[in-house]
Amino acid sequence: MEWLDRQWVDTVLEALTAFFLVAGSLITFISSFGMVHLRDFYLRMHGPAKATTLGVGLVLFASSLYFILIERTFHIQLILVTIFLLITAPISAHLLAKAALHRKLPSTPDTRGAPGELKPEDTAREPDTPHPEHPGGTAPQRPEQPQ
Amino acid sequence: MINRILPRPILSLILAVVWIMLSDAISWGSVILGTLLGIVIPLLTRRLWDTRPEVKKPLLLLRYTIRVLVDILIANLQVAWLIARPWKRPRPAFVEYRLKLRRDFSITLLASTISLTPGTISANLRLDKRTLLIHVLDVTDIDALIEDIYQRYERPLLEIYE
């Protein structure tokens, strides 16, 4: 009877690991799906900033479950990866948003609240720096590739 | 003297421990290298550090951490749900949030928390450090959102650090 019991436990553990793996992948997939169908840069940013955190977190959780329960070893690196993710994800999202604001990327028209960062500047734009070899005009156009 | 070599003893300790944890087993090599890194990195980055943050209420900080972790879980599910239903458009908004926090460190914590939790990303901290520009994925009542951020996150941070 002993071997049957052991097998049963293993099956449950495997199912649990599989569940977290699949859930993590599903959430990561949904957030990537958002990159395709959301309409402006600021909206698309939300996917990777959050859903990925949970997606990767779940995959890491599944992996630590596997190592603890089935291989009976514990890898502390998995926890470190989670902590690093939690620290770095908001900062990279913040920098992306800042860069987008700096470049005045348009937001969708139904976005409420117009921040000053996105309004056109009052002062005249500085003229483009002339190209060193073509001071008269803009940089030479790349020749058309033959079809 | 000790302050010259170890300007931030706790940071040094954390760096050394993290390094030892990253290398698979505890060995003399990893301990020595970890100690070296723990001494050198704080010295090299000393000029980038703000004044040392002091935690006035450690218990409250613990509660705040747990609350943020739970919120991250919920936020992720909410955002995933919002993205997964293409038939209903989200109602995005830019929100200007007036900061009551004054210290760089606690503002950083608040901005990071906002980026990690329900459908909000802190987009820009204005140069005067008085307002934080937040992009919200889906919101109906902006005032309620601001009040929510204040009650849930900024007030505890104010109590913990300022």
Automatic annotation (TrEMBL), chain A:
Keywords, in A-Z order: Membrane, Transmembrane, Transmembrane helix
Keyword Transmembrane applies: yes
Residues passing through the membrane, by range: 12-30, 51-70, 76-97
Entry keyword Transmembrane helix: yes
Pfam entry (one): PhaG_MnhG_YufB
Region (Disordered): 105-147
PANTHER family: ANTIPORTER SUBUNIT MNHG2-RELATED
Entry protein name: Na+/H+ antiporter subunit G
Species this chain originates from: Kushneria aurantia
TrEMBL record, chain B:
InterPro entries noted in UniProt: Cation_antiport_E
Superkingdom of origin organism: Bacteria
Keyword Membrane: yes
Subcellular location per the Swiss-Prot or TrEMBL entry: Cell membrane
Segments crossing the lipid bilayer: 12-44, 64-84
Xref: Pfam families: MNHE (PF01899)
Position of the signal peptide: none
Keyword tags: Cell membrane, Membrane, Transmembrane, Transmembrane helix
Membrane topology note: Multi-pass membrane protein
The keyword Transmembrane is annotated on this UniProt entry: yes
PANTHER family, A to Z: NA(+)/H(+) ANTIPORTER SUBUNIT E1, NA(+)_H(+) ANTIPORTER SUBUNIT E1
Membership in a protein family: Belongs to the CPA3 antiporters (TC 2.A.63) subunit E family.
Annotated protein name in UniProt: Na+/H+ antiporter subunit E
Species name: Kushneria aurantia
